[in-house]
Amino acid sequence: MPSTHVPVGEDQAQHLELVQDLARGFNKKYGAFFPLPAPLLTSMKKVKSLRDPSAKMSKSDPDKLATVRITDSPEEIVQKFRKAVTDFTSEVTYEPASRAGVANMVAIHSAVTGLPVAEVVRRSAGIDTARYKLVVADAVIEKFAPIKSEIEKLKLDREHLEKVLQVGSAKAKDIAYPVCQEVKKLVGFL
């Protein structure tokens, strides 16, 4: 069954547009075959850097304090949030245009807890931004803990991982083979 919706971050939407263009071109020349995949964006379309809230968080950022990784230790996560750029106003608000750093903390907090931004701000009333950074760090640590635990468990079972890769590869080939055969027929290679 072909994919019609693809989960992507906002910064990856251009890649999906390329796939759509390719599918449109193929379909125009050989008949309707490929679906045009639509993006599935989360409510938090782009995670901002902890050190520069005007830029997106990136694993290639040379500033190691700018990016939180699932595999970071709780101590590393706390250090990164402690050093996160905010401002000198103590109150926690969500004003992306004028308080980008604090808005970034609120957006991250909202994303990892599933709470609406307004609720995160309401629950943070009376907390200064320095303490709030630690609240957000704790929420991130809590969200990442089961994922990190599963990663560590899987890394210890290399045999299982290799089996998963083999089974997945075989399944992908089984799904892709008839599609490739049909494409070859449509373009005249078979």
The averaged pLDDT comes out at: 93
Pairing-aware structural class of the strands and helices? mainly alpha
Pattern of helices and strands: EHEHHHHH
State the shape: elongated
Q: Main sheet?
A: 2 strands, parallel
* Spatial strand arrangement across the major sheet: 1-2
- Domain count, please report it: 3
Protein name: tryptophan--tRNA ligase
EC number: 6.1.1.2
Enzyme class: ligase
GO biological process, one term: mitochondrial tryptophanyl-tRNA aminoacylation
Question: Can you walk me through this structure?
Answer:
With 190 residues, the chain is mainly alpha-helical. The protein has 3 domains: 1-41, no CATH class; 74-155, Tyrosyl-Transfer RNA Synthetase (Orthogonal Bundle), CATH 1.10.240; 157-190. Helix content is 55%, strand content 3%. It has helices at residues 13-30, 74-82, 100-113, 117-123, 129-155, 158-187, and strands at residues 5-7, 38-40. The chain has a two-stranded parallel sheet. Helix 1 links the parallel strand 1 (5-7) and strand 2 (38-40). The longest helix has 30 residues, at 158-187. The radius of gyration is 22 Å and the shape is elongated. The two termini are 22 Å apart.
